Structure formats: structure tokens, C-alpha cells
TrEMBL record:
The modification 4-aspartylphosphate is found at residue 50. This is DNA-binding response regulator. PANTHER family: TRANSCRIPTIONAL REGULATORY PROTEIN NARL-RELATED, TWO-COMPONENT RESPONSE REGULATOR. InterPro entries: CheY-like_superfamily, NreC/VraR/RcsB-like_REC, Sig_transdc_resp-reg_C-effctor, Sig_transdc_resp-reg_receiver, Tscrpt_reg_LuxR_C, WalR-like. Residues 159-224 form the HTH luxR-type domain. Signal peptide: none annotated. PROSITE patterns: HTH_LUXR_1, HTH_LUXR_2, RESPONSE_REGULATORY. GO terms for molecular function: DNA binding. One of its GO terms (biological process) is phosphorelay signal transduction system.
Amino acid sequence: MLVDDDPLTRAAIKPLLRPREDYVVVAEAGDGREAIDIVGRIEADIVLMDLGMPVMDGIEATRQICAAPRHPHVVALTTWDVDDAVVRVIEAGAVGYLLKYSASEELHAGLRRVMAGESVLSPGALAELLRYVRCQPTTPTAAAYDVRSQERQHAVAQARQAAAGLSRRELEVIAAAAEGLTTEEIANRLYISVSTVKAHLRSAQERVGARNRVHLAVLAERAGLLG
């Protein structure tokens, strides 16, 4: 499903999905509210979500879509480098982000990673995201101390508290995932099975309150778990 307030952008992205016929655009929406309404009526595996839209932006739409027990993967579409909006949409539940004008191969590679349960972000993109997070203030200023900031602080506090109960192996898996390694690459590095890696990731995500492995990396960075 494509969500963008610009029909020309949607028209430009659709042909990029066609060459291999791996994906079919089952629906389109022009704002976040429309996207929520449509998602409730169709079966979509992935929602490609613009961030800046009228009526309801992509961050709030992502938050509401991902609040459902069963929901599609949301991948943010952005024309910018990493900024606070990208971090916020990941905190809202997006599994990552892709540049709007990515080449067809990059778009397909990212979507394949999503469907395989991997991070949509390449190692380089994840490193850039974590560098941005690292440079953010750990405590919001008075002007920025809104509900979202309080939620962010609570999530970091929960992650720090949960860290005490994480096993050494879980911490190793988190660190490897934060490098952008695939599940198989983590298994090879740590000499454990793929199923064991998946089990450790699920356990770690549940303990620290992460929505997915990219959010796990962000929380781990904020909580000081990555060294």
C-alpha cells in the first residue's frame, strides 16, 4: 500500500515495484487518516508511508496502524537524511525507512528484507540512524517536554531497567543487530543457530519494549547498551 499526499510521487514509485512483479500495490491513500481507514479494510503486507501529509501525518498514522494486534509492516518514505521525524516514526512502529527516490533494486532489496523479518536498513543507514540518536540530548528541554518526549524517556528508562535481566548472549545479539547484520550473519558470528538468534531477538524486544529490531537498536543506543 502506498501512502503519500502527492499523486505524482505515488505514480513515480509504482513502476519501481513492477519490474520483478514481486509486489502489487493493493491500495493508495493521500493522508494518514485515509490510510488508517483503508488498512482496516484490506490485507496488505507492507505500507510505504510518507511522513509529512495533511489531515494526519505519517508518524501518527504509523502509531495507530501499529497499535493493532495484527498489522502490516510500515516502512517510512522520506526525501531527507535522518532527522527527528525518522526517529519518531520508528518509535511509532515503523520497521525502518527508505528514500522516496531509491533505485528499483534498492527498493526491492529493502522490501525483501522486511518480508524476511530483517531490518529494512542497510548497515550504513542503521549506523547513520544510531549516530543521530547518539547526538540527541538524553533529557528533553523544557520547551520540548511534551507527551512524546515523556514517552521516549519512559521507554529508555524501561530499557535500562530491563538491561539488568538480559543475558550476555542477548546483549551480544542486540549489539550485532545494531550493526545491521542479518539473522544469518549474527548466527555465523556467534556460532549459534538462526532459530536461537530469533529467540534472543524476540526475548530482548519483549524485555526492553521494542517494537522491532530497528527500534531495539535505537533503544539500546539510548540506554547505553551498545558500549
